[in-house]
């Protein structure tokens, strides 16, 4: 299997859900952010957020929540708290945290970018696009914001415009793995998995590539039906149980996609004979 159709809303959502699963394996609800890039620190304590189990994320959310309650406009705390909430499947609460911070710091580019990501994670794509664009300044363009804007445009079904922004970001920050990964995901959403894999492998091999980038590579490999290879890549980032869970999810998703395609073919045959 080298291609898969992503044109319907349901299929696109399934792929976004699969990508989110790779970012937060084992997290109930899979409510993570939908973009690889961004300025928000994703580390709480000594362990990266995306590597935490559901129990660890819940504990981190409780601890950060207490600190946040004492000073909700403290930028670093609010950003970390929102990030953990998103990874914990609490997107609405994360958005509320970021909205409050954006009101307090309306000109802070990092805050506006994170607010845009929170809006996108909550499915509010047009407001997310507005927030990210307001954070960008033409005279001092930020590659992270360009890539984040591209990711939102991809979700809005505008891949060509999105890829222009990814290439703009790469012009500012050449060979940046997070941007290359977003570019790869753009092709995933369009169903061109071979091109997606090319960009994902380039991203994974680039200096500074993190766990999320390599997990996205595992996703693209798995979507092509190469499950053993995908699990091997995932095992380098996740526990064996988490890697197996991700691959099982992909198998199930692809089997549902194949079943849906078979039903559509049967409907066409039935219509032709009537």
TrEMBL record:
Where does the record locate the signal sequence feature? 1-24
Give the matching InterPro entries: TPR-like_helical_dom_sf, TPR_rpt, UCP035836
Where are TPR repeat segments found? 143-176
User: PROSITE patterns, from UniProt?
Assistant: PROKAR_LIPOPROTEIN (PS51257), TPR (PS50005)
The parts of the chain that form a coiled coil are none
Q: Which Gene3D superfamilies match?
A: Tetratricopeptide repeat domain
Entry keyword set: Signal, TPR repeat
Where on the tree of life does the source sit, at the highest rank?
Bacteria
Which named protein is this?
Answer: Flp pilus assembly protein TadD
Which organism is this entry from? Pseudaminobacter salicylatoxidans
């Amino acid at each position: 299997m080298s291609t898969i159709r992503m044109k319907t809303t349901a299929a696109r959502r399934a792929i976004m859900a699969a990508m989110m699963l790779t970012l937060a394996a084992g997290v109930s609800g899979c409510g993570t952010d939908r973009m690889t890039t961004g300025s928000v620190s994703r580390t709480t304590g000594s362990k990266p957020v995306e590597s935490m189990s559901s129990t660890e994320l819940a504990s981190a959310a409780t601890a950060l929540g207490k600190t946040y309650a004492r000073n909700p406009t403290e930028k670093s705390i609010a950003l970390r708290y929102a990030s953990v909430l998103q990874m914990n499947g609490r997107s609405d609460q994360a958005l509320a945290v970021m909205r409050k911070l954006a009101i307090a710091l309306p000109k802070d580019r990092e805050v506006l970018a994170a607010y845009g990501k929170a809006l996108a994670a909550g499915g509010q794509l047009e407001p997310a696009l507005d927030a990210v664009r307001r954070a960008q300044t033409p005279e001092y363009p930020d590659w992270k914001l360009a890539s984040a804007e591209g990711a939102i445009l991809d979700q809005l079904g505008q891949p060509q415009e999105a890829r222009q922004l990814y290439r703009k970001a790469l012009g500012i920050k050449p060979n940046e793995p997070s941007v290359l990964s977003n570019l790869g995901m753009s092709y995933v959403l369009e169903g061109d998995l071979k091109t997606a894999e090319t960009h994902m492998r380039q991203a994974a091999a680039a200096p500074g590539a993190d766990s999320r980038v390599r997990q996205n590579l595992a996703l693209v490999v798995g979507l092509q039906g190469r499950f053993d290879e995908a699990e091997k890549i995932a095992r380098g980032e996740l526990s064996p149980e988490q890697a197996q869970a991700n691959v099982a999810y992909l198998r199930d998703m692809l089997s549902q996609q194949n079943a849906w395609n078979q039903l559509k073919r049967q409907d066409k045959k039935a219509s032709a004979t009537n």
